[in-house]
Automatic annotation (TrEMBL):
Name assigned to this protein: NUDIX domain-containing protein
Organism: Marseilla massiliensis
Record domain Nudix hydrolase: where: 34-168
Top-level taxonomy: Bacteria, Pseudomonadati, Bacteroidota, Bacteroidia, Bacteroidales
Keyword entries, A-Z: Hydrolase
Example of a GO MF term: hydrolase activity
Classification via InterPro entries: NUDIX_hydrolase-like_dom_sf, NUDIX_hydrolase_CS, NUDIX_hydrolase_dom
Gene3D superfamilies associated with the record: Nucleoside Triphosphate Pyrophosphohydrolase
Amino acid sequence: MDTTDYSEMLPVVNEQGEVTGKTTRKEAHGKLRPLHPVVHLHVFNSRGELYLQKRPQWKDVQPGKWDTATGGHVGYGESIENALMREVAEELGITGFAPVFLGRYTFESDVERELVHVFRTLYDGPVTPDANELDGGRFWSAEEIAEAMGKGVLTPNFESEYKRFFLCKQ
């Protein structure tokens, strides 16, 4: 069930992450596609497996595909760190984790332009995906991810990010 608040205010940023204005979530995914910040967290367990979420069919971007454990918009006036903690708690029920910042980059599609802030963490506790946000999730081995790459199972954003931050570093 789509519970998205399309009137939610998001910051508009430049390539350096400096806020230059604000927009609604609807406008951020509209014709003009203003650059707006998002957070991604990659959750690894001690076996080296990576947790991926299954995007619900009702999502406006990449419905039904497997994606980064947590990804979400930064609210207007919210810090990157607070947005990360909020999104992870909302989507996966995980609190008390230690995020490690990996970098940021601009992601563009026909629907949006995002300044993506990428983090990773090591976590072996319970993961409880919110059924209102996700269609579940599970830990994947590096072999399973390699097998799924390029087959339309994973989001293009995840595939690009995985290659950028993890593939050459394993």
